[in-house]
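Lecture 7, part B: from sequences to assemblies.

Below are the input chains for today's worked example.
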Amino acid sequence: MAFQVPPLAYPFDALEPHIDAKTMEIHHDKHHATYVTNANAALDKHPELAAKTVEDLLWGINEVPEDIRTAIRNNAGGHSNHSIFWSIMGPGGGGNPPGRLGDTIKSTFGSYDAFKEQLTKAGLGQFGSGWAWLLADKNGKMSIKSYPNQDSPYMEGLTPILGVDVWEHAYYLKYQNKRADYLAAWFNTLNWAAIEVRFSSIWVA
Ligand code: MN3
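Predicted structure of the full complex, as structure tokens:
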């Protein structure tokens, strides 16, 4: 089955003032849609891969036929990254992470503020386009890492728990060159209930 852009669970303006409606509309309806179109076009050349999930394709990137491997890395990667991104944000977000998730962040990074500082540093330190992620390995051990372009943490067998798009298309309309201001505001969009589900799901993976 061909990949599809998942519908946003909230209106384009729901993340205002942190992320503006126009950016959300273009980012979701145009940028994400292009990754999906290009991933599907690549998969059309290899119908034997049609049943694979996006995570399967990325986990097994080295087994993807060479003629479409780069296209899958970039576009299935882009599809996966953006699908996660929309789902971990929401209106009325932000504040401190709850429960076991909050405890694990605290025990891993020292405090939620220290975690924010490290994720911000990863996002600012990513030269050019890319993403900064909070990751978990198969034992639930957390780490923070940035990736260039649309490279997916799944390619390294790591589960992305939450992450931020630092491509200019994610913030340029409102923040222009001020990536730090975008990152500071973005923390106010985090939907902790959705993020907890992602963190819980790695234990059974
Ligand atoms: Mn993007």
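Note for the exam: Residues 99-202 form a domain with the minor pseudopilin epsh fold fold (CATH 3.55.40.20). Keep this in mind when comparing with the next example.
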